[in-house]
Design brief:
Elements (H helix, E strand, L loop, with lengths): L8 H10 L4 H10 L4 E5 L5 H5 L6 E6 L2 H8 L8 E4 L11 E6 L10 H11 E12 L11 H4 L1 E5 L2 E13 L2 E9 L5 E9 L3 H10 L4 E5 L13 E7 L1
Parallel strand pairs: 1-2, 1-4, 2-3, 4-5
Antiparallel strand pairs: 5-11, 6-7, 7-8, 8-9, 10-11
Length: 239
C-alpha cells in the first residue's frame, strides 16, 4: 500500500478513460464563463483543468499526487496551465481568483475540510465562487462497496485487469476501503482510500466559518432539489 492512491503510472493512464468529461465538467465550465482567473483544486490528470483554458484567462491546477500531476503536465495544452504540487497549504491567499472548483469528489479526500475551504476562500476575490461536489451520506453508497458487488475484469492499455473494492472501516462519516487492481503478471496494486462523508449542514458550517455568505447545495448538476435520495451534494458558495 502507498500513500498516493494514484501512484501507479499504469492506473493513472486509465483514469481519464474511466472518468471522462460529463455533466460535472459542463457544470464547472459554465461557472467559469466570463472569469479571468480560475483555480482547480485537486486537479488530478488535468482533464477538466485544461478545458477551462480560454484567451486571457489564468488557470491554475493544484494536486497532491506527484504521479497524476506529472501526467497532467505531459498532456496537450498543459503549457497553458500553471501546475502546483501540494494540498491546500500551497494555495496562495492572493484574493484575486474568480472561481475555485474541485471536481471528482476531491473534497471527500480532504481530512482538514475547514482548513481547505478557508485556504480557498483566501484565494478568492470578494464575490468569487467556490464550487465542488461530494457524495450524499444519506444515500449510503459505501454499502455497495463489497468485492461481490464491485468485481470486474476488462482489457485495458495496461493489459487484462481484475478489479474490486474491499470495505475496511466506517467510523463517524470516515469510510476506508481498498481498491484492488490485479495485472496480468499477478501484481495486485492495492490502494487504501479514505473518504469523508459530510452532510450538507456540516459543509455549510465550514463554508460560513471560512467567510462565505451565500451557500447553495443542490442534489444534482441541473439544480435538482437536495433530498435524502440524492446521490450528490453539488455545492456552490460565494465569498
Amino acid at each position: 500500500m502507498i500513500d498516493d492512491p494514484y501512484g501507479d503510472q499504469q492506473l493513472v493512464e486509465l483514469y481519464d478513460l474511466d472518468n471522462p468529461a460529463g455533466e460535472d465538467h459542463d457544470y464547472y465550465r459554465a461557472l467559469a464563463e466570463g472569469t479571468a482567473k480560475v483555480l482547480d483544486f485537486g486537479c488530478g490528470t488535468g482533464l477538466l483543468t485544461r478545458s477551462l483554458v480560454a484567451p486571457g484567462r489564468v488557470v491554475i491546477g493544484v494536486d497532491p499526487s506527484p504521479t497524476m500531476l506529472g501526467y497532467a503536465r505531459r498532456q496537450p495544452g498543459a503549457d497553458a496551465v500553471t501546475w502546483i504540487d501540494g494540498d491546500h497549504l500551497v494555495v496562495e491567499p492572493t484574493g484575486d481568483v474568480d472561481l475555485a472548483v474541485s471536481s471528482g469528489n476531491t473534497m471527500m479526500h480532504v481530512a482538514e475540510h475547514a482548513a481547505a475551504v478557508a485556504a480557498l476562500a483566501a484565494a478568492l476575490r470578494p464575490g468569487g465562487v467556490l464550487a465542488f461536489e461530494s457524495r450524499n451520506p444519506a444515500a449510503r453508497a459505501w454499502e455497495q462497496w463489497t468485492s461481490e458487488a464491485t468485481y470486474g475484469e476488462r482489457d485495458t492499455v495496461a493489459g487484462h485487469l481484475k478489479e474490486w473494492l474491499e470495505l475496511i472501516e466506517i467510523a463517524n462519516g470516515r469510510v476506508t476501503f481498498d481498491a484492488h487492481n490485479v495485472f496480468e503478471d499477478g501484481r495486485d496494486a492495492v490502494y487504501r482510500n479514505v473518504l469523508y462523508f459530510r452532510s450538507a449542514d456540516e459543509i455549510t458550517a465550514d463554508l460560513v466559518a471560512a467567510g462565505f455568505s451565500d451557500v447553495v447545495i443542490e442534489g444534482g448538476w441541473h439544480g435538482e432539489p437536495l433530498t435524502e435520495a440524492s446521490r450528490l451534494l453539488v455545492v456552490r458558495a460565494t465569498k
